[in-house]
Amino acid sequence: MTAVESSGRVVGKWHGAWLRVEGHWTWYRRHWLTTLYSTGLQPVLFLAAMGLGFGSQVRPGAVTGGLSYLQYIAPALLAAGAAQQAVGESSYPVLSGFKWQKDYLAVTATPVSPGQVLGGHLIWSALRLTLAGAIYAFVALFFGAWTGPGVLLVIVAGTVTGLACTTPMTALAARTSDEGQRFGLIFRFVVMPMTLFSGTFFPISQLPAAIRWLAWLSPLWHGSQLARGVSVGGVGGWAMLGHFAVLAALFAAGWALAHRAFYERLVV
């Protein structure tokens, strides 16, 4: 019997993940216009409505740290937009990879592993969040929303906030087998209340003490504080480190759950 040598080759860990990113980019460059609203424009509209519209009725004071209301909410709206985008792009699109389009099944039939599929999704999410943050920051510049060069770090804070929401949502989507009805409930009863009551539009000190702890659990509150700290100040160094540590812990816990779920669902 003649031995047949395999012509295949092992795909490196990072190489496999970047192959998935290449696939996402191929789709995106053809359909980027359909994502323009979620990629930066949605939070800009919020900024125009709340910062220029409603904000024109709010005088600078102790609550806003002496800033105009526009400058006060601009960093937090970037973080809020990142959180909303992260949840949106890690819910139905991830479920589709398993259930409808089944491209995850097709990809893992090649030398690309489930972990690399997950890695590609997270890398692509980080790139998309950074792009959305950059677009928002650039447009908000013309509104007079920024007070200094800290805007560059605000973009990073937005990406970190988004990733802290991406991995838990990806883990949930990977364990969803129905049509994803739970995603609508999450958007309605988690994402929107989180956006409204996590310090985006007013300090959480204005909330009743009995429910203030809910804001402390929210990744968006930590992201908003981080974004404000690097752009307009007012947040101590140790507090900044604590906010970052919470977001990093959420990302790591979500990644561990998602990694396990991807292998359980894609390895037969």
UniProtKB/TrEMBL annotation:
Transmembrane region(s): 126-146, 152-174, 186-215, 235-258
Entry keywords, A to Z: Antibiotic resistance, Cell membrane, Membrane, Transmembrane, Transmembrane helix, Transport
Residues of the ABC transmembrane type-2 domain: 34-265
Pfam families: ABC2_membrane
Cytoplasm in keyword set: no
Chief place of localization: membrane
Keyword Cell membrane recorded: yes
Domain of life from the UniProt record: Bacteria
Location within or outside the cell: Cell membrane; Membrane
Membrane topology label: Multi-pass membrane protein
Record PANTHER family: NODULATION PROTEIN J
Similarity field: Belongs to the ABC-2 integral membrane protein family.
Protein known as: Transport permease protein
Organism whose genome encodes this protein: Amycolatopsis heterodermiae
